[in-house]
Predict the 3D structure of the following.
Amino acid sequence: MNNIEKITSLLIKEIEKAVKELEIDAVVLGCSGFIGLANTVSVAVSVPVVDPTLVIPKVAESFKLGLKHRKIKSPLV
């Protein structure tokens, strides 16, 4: 098993755990080092998985529109 396969396997395991324990609805991968893994991981889990490098421009646009992130703190922080 190569490093990408190991990382993918760990992501799937942790996301499945979060879905079960935290009842999450979606995952945004938090590192550009995960580029290209979102589709593979999303197929293996029951929630959408988003590649952050693809949504960064849209997030920047949303700030121009005055939209903001939720102020509710994540239970993981």
